[in-house]
Amino acid sequence: KTSSSFEEVSESSSENEEDEQPVRRQEGTTDLSPEYWGIQKLSKYVKGGDPTATVIALCSMRDFNMAQESCQLAVKDTGCLEVLINLLDTEEIKCQTGSLKILKEISQNMLIRHAIADLGGLEIMVKILDSPDKDLKSLAAETIANVARFKRARKTVRQHEGIRRLVALLECVSVGTPYQAEDTEIARCGALALWSCSKSTKNKKAIHKAGGIPLLARWLKCSDANILIPVVGTLQECASEPSYRLAIRTEGMIKNLVKNLSSEHEELQMLCASAIFKCAEDEETRDLVRQHGGLQPLSVLLDNSENKQLLAAVTGAIWKCAISIENVSKFRSYNTIETLVGLLTDQPEEVLINVVGALGECCQEPINRSTIRECGGIPPIVKLLTATDQALLVNVNKAVGACATECENMTIIDSLDGVRLLWSLLKNPNPDVQASAAWALCPCIENAKDSGEMVRSFVGGLELIVNLLKSKNKEVLTSVCAAIANIAKDEENLAVMTDHGVVPLLSKLANTNDNKLRRHLAEAISHCCMWGSNRVAFGETKAVAPLVRYLKSKDPSIHRATAQALYQLSEEPNNCITMHENGVVKLLLAMVGSTDDVLQEAAAGCIANIRRLALATEKAKYG
Amino acid sequence: AAMSRKRLQLLVESLTRSAKHFNEGEVECLIKLFDALVAKCSSQFAGVGFNRIVFRDTLHSAFGMTDEVVLDRVFSTFDRDNNGCITVVEWVEGLAVLLRGTLDEKIKHCFMVYDLNGDGYISREEMFQMLKNSLLKQPADEDPDEGIKDLVEIDYDHDGKLSFTDFEKAVREENLLLEAFGPCLPDIK
Question: How many domains does one find in chain B?
Fold first, then answer.
């Protein structure tokens, strides 16, 4: 299970992102820019004139290039910023409008927006959202969108009931009236502000509470890219919340998201793909994407490899959609696998994580494992085993493991030193990396030529893996047991592991209730019985009684492994006694009639051993 | 003198067409208001219309417009035949622009108001005249006229006067400049 990297990717656009820190440049020079003097002169009239003069001065101020940093800072340094904010607090609509037109521009500057927030500008702008003047509302919303690019600002907006008012801006008027264009503009500005604000988790919830989702859904149906972009931007930002994913699915939004994958606007394509990426965590959504014909446009978008943000979103969407095997078949028909293999080199990490994830999922269909080999995909994947990013490593391990189930692939992996690289990942501090490496090792050991010798050639390798049985992480333990079960099939290696204390370490784990661990632990025990006095040792370290209890579970996959382990253990008389005392016979009898041949045989064999011992004991007693 | 019903109806229809922005019900109300104002005027114009004083009072109480210079100018824009008397036609058509004019109509209206001498240009002297009360007293060492010069300089910096085309272009680029020289349209509130 590797959902960890999705969490990391989605959270990177939410609270956990490095919040911006405004840093003032060195105030070494006393050289004030020419803009400084011009703006200072104007701010005098803004401060000291009546509304008529103020409006003229404000309009003149916009003749300066407010996108330029020197102008922006001049507004702040001349004290004009305070004046502009004070103007917002008046009831003079023209003055408020003129002021907001400037604030909207200069709030693109990080220092300025922090200053605006410090001066209490946000609260006033939120109040202005109640104004009947449509231009004023739009300007206020757009300015809020710029200022709310840092955490504290977003919190302020929420604390002053800003979210509710912004959502209200989305209430659209019926299509076809002469006010449609105006109201669309208001909604666009509202959506921009909500997009900025939605980066905070509490705001995502507030938007939901204020009834934002059905409104966003309605706007999603229109075809104007100008409003679609902030609407989808908001939705994909919020899609990290399960409540949003549910709503996106149930309000029929997947259809529109898929439709807009074919938009001409790359930003819109990217946002739709990103939304699908996040929502495809859920199986129903994956089915909906397929049913609405979304898989093909996603595949087509892979051809745009220049736009890395887009590529990351698209590969992410493909990865998650490929979790459903029906989608894998579709992707195969679009030659997606070949394209993905082509993206294994020269791509930024955020793209690679998703590409490898996708390929790993595509291996659910065995034929794709050959396809990957045929287009030369194995070497680049193996090379990625040397990466440092943990999310990437998890996906690479999974992909390598999936490929290794095919012998021809295994040959290539081995020749590129892939197994040794996997083994050294067992030393990685991240438990997800360790576990995924161990899982991947299982098919490697099974399918490699001379695997026993190969394993022995890793210096300190057996000691390393046995020691991982001391981990506190369930997934690590489970995967390591699975690997040990495989390693133990080679007698020499089993001897070495025994020397490293594998038996007591396995026994210590026996008292678990986790079914997956139980199964692989039982497998490991049954294989480890095949050396020296390990059967006795398992008995002495109290592994037997817990194993009997496993038979009471309802999970059939446990029964087979446990019966095999018990059968092996029953070769040792003391273990038979323990098992008998724990009521194993009745449990095993029920399984003798199973349709699973292996289970049947193991159960019968175990009972036979117990019987034989009982008979021998009786004979000894009574001559 | 009260009009006959038929004549009233014809007048309503014709005004609704020419004023463009009011419906018949609204036009009828405006006509009633007009009659009331004429009555106030003590038959100076024999019931045909009302004068400047009544006009200014009305605009002041209805729209809160206080600037005398501006009110005078607005009167002049209404009083198209320049006879000092606002007839019912001038009244309804003038209000149509004031209350519901399109941007084009408003631009024309405002330009007419600001063009104090009606010569087709807003000169710098006219701008000074209109803005002189807009600036609060500057600190003692500054000439108040300097302030106005600065503002005017900043805004329109070519041949010292503003033609209609100049004004229209500026307002189209920046709507806020429509009433640049003083409020001459009613406030939303």
Answer: 2
